[in-house]
Amino acid sequence: MAARSKARKRAVDLLFEAEQRGVNARDLLAERLAKPVTEAPLNQYTADLVEGVVAHWTDINELLTTYSQGWSLERMPSVDRAILRLGAFEVLYADDVPEGVAVAEAVELAKTLSTDESPKFVNGLLGRLIEVKPTLA
């Protein structure tokens, strides 16, 4: 697995854990940076991703809710929310990541971490965000 793919997985893990524990993802990130719980400390790209998602949290959630067509955020599996938040951040705000790469990475995370239906859902919703992106500025 490539370094950025691993960083994305760790970012999803942090976002998921923060939601499950009911803590702010930025606070959990700071805690993990100060006292790593694995042999390999979090890399900078993981930290940048989590910080980016948190910085755009409200906008990302609103967009996911608006374009998910009948699926509220609460109804989505928790891991899908984490994957979609990360994917939406990369698609909408990360200038150094091509949109297609962001979607492909999110779909791959959904394949390995979530339900059989999740990759298609993640692909469709992030694809829709790419379509409407020009109207969001």
From TrEMBL:
<comment type="similarity">
    <text>Belongs to the NusB family.</text>
</comment>
<dbReference type="Pfam" id="PF01029">
    <property type="entry name" value="NusB"/>
</dbReference>
<dbReference type="GO" id="GO:0006353">
    <property type="term" value="P:DNA-templated transcription termination"/>
</dbReference>
<keyword id="KW-0694">RNA-binding</keyword>
<feature type="domain" description="NusB/RsmB/TIM44">
    <location>
        <begin position="6"/>
        <end position="130"/>
    </location>
</feature>
<keyword id="KW-0805">Transcription regulation</keyword>
<dbReference type="InterPro" id="IPR006027">
    <property type="entry name" value="NusB_RsmB_TIM44"/>
</dbReference>
<dbReference type="GO" id="GO:0005829">
    <property type="term" value="C:cytosol"/>
</dbReference>
<dbReference type="InterPro" id="IPR011605">
    <property type="entry name" value="NusB_fam"/>
</dbReference>
<dbReference type="GO" id="GO:0003723">
    <property type="term" value="F:RNA binding"/>
</dbReference>
<protein>
    <recommendedName>
        <fullName>Transcription antitermination protein NusB</fullName>
    </recommendedName>
</protein>
<keyword id="KW-0804">Transcription</keyword>
<dbReference type="GO" id="GO:0031564">
    <property type="term" value="P:transcription antitermination"/>
</dbReference>
<comment type="function">
    <text>Involved in transcription antitermination. Required for transcription of ribosomal RNA (rRNA) genes. Binds specifically to the boxA antiterminator sequence of the ribosomal RNA (rrn) operons.</text>
</comment>
<keyword id="KW-0889">Transcription antitermination</keyword>
<dbReference type="InterPro" id="IPR035926">
    <property type="entry name" value="NusB-like_sf"/>
</dbReference>
